[in-house]
Amino acid sequence: MSDNHNSAGGVPTTGHLWDDDLADFVNQPPKWWMLGLTASAIWVVVYWLMYPAVPVAINGTFFKGVGLPGSGQWTAIKELAVDQAELDAVRKPYEDKLKAMTPAAILADKELSEYVARSGKVLFSDNCAGCHGQNGVGTSQAGKFAMREQGLMAPILNDDDWLYGGKIDDIHTTISGGRQGMMTPHKDTLSAKQIDDVAKYVKAMSVEGKSAADADAAVADGKKVFAESDCTGCHGADAKGMAAMGSANLTDKVWRFDGSIEGIKQSITYGVNAGDNARVAVMPNFTAAGKLSAVEMKKLAVYVYKFGGGQKEEAAPVAAPVVDAPAAPAVP
Amino acid sequence: MSELKKEVGSVTSIYSEHVEWATNLGDKTVHAKRMPGRFRTLKYITESFWLIFFFGAYLRWNGKQALLLDVNNRQFHLFNLTILPQDIWMVSLLLLLVAMTLFAVTSVASRVFCGYFCFQTAWVDLFTWIEEKIEGNPNKRHKLDAAPWSFSKFRIKLIKHAIWMAIAIFTGISFTIWFEDAFVYWHNLLSFNLSIIESATLIAFTLGTYGLAGFMREQACLWLCPYARIQAVMADTQTILPAYDLARGEPRGKLRHAGKVVEQQGDCIDCFQCVQVCPTGVDIRDGQQLGCITCGLCLDACDSVMDKIGRPRGLIRYASLDELEGRKVHKLYQHPRTWVYIGIILIALGGIVYGLNHLGALTLRVAPERQPLFVSMSDGSIQNKYTFKVLNKTDKDLNVKISAEGGVKGQVLIDADIPQLVHHGKPASFTVFVKAPRDNLHSEVTKLQFRVENVEDPTMAAEYNTVFNGPKVNGK
Ligand code: SF4
Ligand code: SF4
Q1: Ligand 1 centroid vs B307 CA: distance in angstroms?
Q2: Which domains does chain B have, with CATH numbers?
Q3: Where are the domains of chain A?
Q4: Which one of A13, A90, A116, B112 counts the least CB within 10 Å of its CB?
Q5: What is the CATH number of domain A182-280?
Q6: pTM for the full predicted model
Q7: Interatomic CA distance for residues B254 and B272, integer angstroms
């Protein structure tokens, strides 16, 4: 940085003049810079040979590169495989244990249920959140308008209302076997007035409670329809629903589809999974779909249970191992 | 240096300090002379603070390294204290404290840090001390440098560089052992078992020390160090710094001329001792300048000259510009900058002391679930989900009990009756549900405080303020 560098005197210019007096000196780039440039040019060739970058086939297979001395033919894919194997080795003891355990036993084991909850989150997001929404908030809260347009409404999973039971084994059965909602349409068997009456009665049961609704003269007509037509056949005389067939509890404050009078009337008129205008309620059978391994379905059961609505077993959970169909290795 | 002429259109015309470039660019090596004196002694004492750097990491406390910046495990250990990432805000206060102390000292007494404490100064001092022991005094060194290569020159140089390198390696090791167990590191080192990061740190610090202290020397101060560049902003006319008393010294001249003592001359006898001892090759008689690291060595040199010629000491002395130019000298406490700096220092210090006293053995963070904010349950009540993160900073595992205060009337904590196991040094995470009757909700959000306490020792506890979310109530 002393005089001999930037001095204006002595150095010739390129001979071009811009804007009357602007000229370019023909100073050499600094030596270190030229060295760097040459070194990079050499490195490009070396790199090209070392890594699988030559797009020609040699001996019927693509040239794989000569590799770094001592490192073999490194590729990012191989590195990923190594990392993945490392991860799998860490997970293996857990995964092996899970194979022989019931969902209830996993839930009872603090460490395992923690492990399962983590991989469950990924599984749920990939397989379940499409209908149930992230964290099981249900179709309507997840804002899945297109699904609602088609009448397909997946239930909220983090409340304590369960159509088919909320014990850990019930949840596991639902996931592994799927569910098919059903409700007969009443457009042909009930008159418009009857449908209106019974809808009001059902709504009253939810708002005021069953006994108050029964005593309420305003919905007495509906009560009669409910008792005399086929409603009790599925929902039960107490209107509390039956977990065995997945009929809804009509006395609680959670609505499977739509709790407005109009919504209730639609459910009664057109039914569920029963043709035109019917509500759609289908839970796929994940075993048949072949998408999830047995262990993965157990993980999901525990994960869903832990959303906050899982129901405890009356007796202590039985930790007896069950025999599983040989499961594909889990990829959490 | 005068051969660097000022010429229109050349870079030298832009920079006033161009005359020093020959030194600064390394064209000329500074071989400073060593002279005993007050400041020389002081410098030895202050520089020996760096022994802590070399040996502090070997201090043990309860069977563990007493001072350990365990970056790998994201925790700092200071004797009994463990500082986890959550408390790292104190480090910013610490940086503020250190910076402000540096500024305050600079404003009062100029570059005290540079002259007496800086690692560059200290290591260069050590390296040149070794150089002097091996190659001899500055004259001999200049001659040796200029001499053609011979076996004896090679041997002398080899010994010097070997010792320099050994110190550099030891510096690299000493740096690294602050970040992991010193004895484990030595073991790994001696069995050639260092990780890549360990080796890279060692090599970087070894080469850095060797290059900076062995070759860059004063050039690091002149060309690399940002502090050298900004210190002028912090100094003012009240700052005391090594200064040459112009009024007393000039006109300078040789003591004797043609065998006779020359009369009517200033006290400076132009002996150049002050320049020869200067580690950065500065002539302090030209006034305060960028190159001066205020090490005081020229004071020692000149004082010894003054003693010899029977003049009072202090021709070069610590003095403020005000003093030298005959203005009123203010007392330290009349110096407003000092008060501003002290204020900031006290705030930072207060923050750190508060932080260290409130580290707590337990920390609690509660994250309310955001999707969904709340769930309506079948009985019409509202349920919220909270993820608890409890950090146990003690060195034992313990069980904590969960309770809540405030919130909604009639709320129930679900799954909170079982004590939760929290491993030491690790955050534990678990979920707690709170369910409350909808009718008791008076607004969309209700304040709620959670508390965790050690089952065995309820005084060890931590609280966290959060909210209970619900649907809108009457439009609120
Ligand atoms: S050491 Fe003192 S007397 Fe000698 S040249 Fe420097 S200022 Fe002058
Ligand atoms: S001029 Fe004096 S105080 Fe400044 S660096 Fe040189 S010897 Fe030290």
Answers
A1: 12
A2: 362-475 (2.60.40.10)
A3: 29-74, 182-280
A4: A90
A5: 1.10.760.10
A6: 0.63
A7: 11
